[in-house]
Protein 1
Amino acid sequence: MEIVFQVTERSIDKRGNLLHIPEIEVETYWNNLYEEPEAVIELYHTHGTSELKTNMNIERLPSGKMSVNELVLSVAMLAFNTLRLIGQTALTCTEELPYEHSFVRKRLRKVIDDLIRVGCKFVSHALRWSLKLWVKDPWSGIHQGLRSHSCPLTVIMEKL
């Protein structure tokens, strides 16, 4: 077991007043990681920040029962991974993208805004229901790629 220390000495308080006696804060991190001390401290500081919790809006779990929270986290994890997969695969369909991109991944909020929330309506004709997408949607090329199987996203969606 390794102990990493971070010692902070403050001579000015948060309002900018000088302190006669400096304030000393000591943080200790007990771990069994084989990392540099700076990396261990950074890992502990980012410990509670998760894109899963913030993007799926589950910063606070809904119940005091662990089994309910486990179910909520499992469903959120499935939705998170599916959205991440859709976003990454949509970036591989470069010919259908409405803009040039230089980034390696899409944020989940952008995936939801661009690919999930689309203008559409259900239409009933000749005893068949169909989903009509908005023709002027800039992302309609990606959706057309799903229909024509030219985009690898179709294969992924069929597996789900």
Protein 2
Amino acid sequence: MTMSIPVWVLLAFAVWSMLVLILTVGIYRWGLIFAGRVQVSAFRADQIEGSDRYRRAMRAHLNCLENLPIYGAIVITIVVSGAEGSALDGLALTLIGARIVQTLIHVSWEQTNRLAYMRFGFFFIQLICMFGMTALVVQQTI
């Protein structure tokens, strides 16, 4: 069985979400733990803590997790319906590119209004891609 581009992008989205967790949040936490500066139990889910960069990393990871199931539902619909085509492939590839850029903007620099607008722009591109993919599936199955 061959996987379609939207399915490959779903896998890439999941892997990206895990990498964001490991390379930002994980490195920060484990660095502090191994340096003996905090205990493993020091990180509480109900408390905002850490540097600005760490908090942005947490938010960027959560943002990935918020959008992954939505894209996953669209991909399941694509697979079940048998929808296909270069437009779906292009939208899926654009979506993952925009997701990666949005995350990198979020975690790489202290946020300014300009960067927040840029980050939102890349998020908006993802929304357009998901709505476009949905419309294409509906069009192909009606």
Protein 3
Amino acid sequence: MSDKINTIVEQVKTLTVVELVELVSQLKSALGVSDAALAGPAAAAPAAGGAAPAAAEAPTSFKVTLTAGGANKINAIKIIREILGLGLADAKAFVEGAPKVVKEGVDKPTADDLAKKLKDAGAEVKIEGS
């Protein structure tokens, strides 16, 4: 690896989980990369073979986004700690930095369960198919 790559890797290793999630999200956005593109050429091969467009299919993978911590952020912080396994400070930063992606690439029942937990805690949540 080049010195430039080694330097970047060393910097990334110092980030918290919350910061890593934010970094990945920002990189995807800045570079215009979708999750499908990250899956590699094998994932795109069926569509190239003349299959129906992906937009016509029902989503099988979902993204759960915390849009706001709600009036009682403490409850949302507790649930985020439980879901993501974060420490108190990281969970607090995550909730206060909303909107943030909680989980990506989960099935519908899992997405619904996560959203319900967060909504029951008073947080605002959005589920999107991908």
Protein 4
Amino acid sequence: MNKLKTVIQYECFTSFKYIWIFYGIQYACVALITAIVGISMGSFEHVGTNCLEVNSLIYVGILGVLGFHEDFKTLIQNGFTRRYIFLATLSLFAFISGIMALVDTAVGNLLHALSGNYFSVYASIYGYGNVFANWVWLFFLYLSVCSLFYLGVLVINRMGKTISLFLGVILAGIALLLAALFRFVLSGEVLSRLGKLALSAMGFMRDGSINLFFPVLTFLLATALFSLGSYAVIRRTELRG
């Protein structure tokens, strides 16, 4: 148990500073672009931005990819089991997702309160009014994205780049086949039911109400699925040079 605590602390502490580097770069870029556009137009009245969480989604996706190679090699060489490495990685994802969801929720609500023109990803879908639900929704969204990309890089490492490339081509073909199926084969009634099911999964109920628990449950189930897949793969992952 002490070894697990050690590896979790190692993962979280070594990644903590990069959060603030990311936000520093993001806000500096936003400020610079805002200043350039405002000066060029001669007015800052209609200058602004929205949905900064999209940048965070890209960051956590990169985190999911980079959360494997070097850390896995370092930890496996120092005697940590694959189970401990997996649990430590999930703890890191939860740690980073929680902090970034908190920051993005606070900044999104603050910018909206100050200007009235800023809308976050969450607010664009569900509106403002429930700060806690905003944080929980973002937390599980970020966590599911981390887990998805982590599973992807584990599969690529396990199967090799060539086989993974063929698998990617096959998956792309399946996606095109499904698109054709939805477009030309399935009836309008079936598509309508599937659309309603997707909307329900995101919290939009048939009676017009919004259930904020359902999208969180959707992201949680996705995270659990990706995590189980990652654990199944990492148990058979070998150290490569």
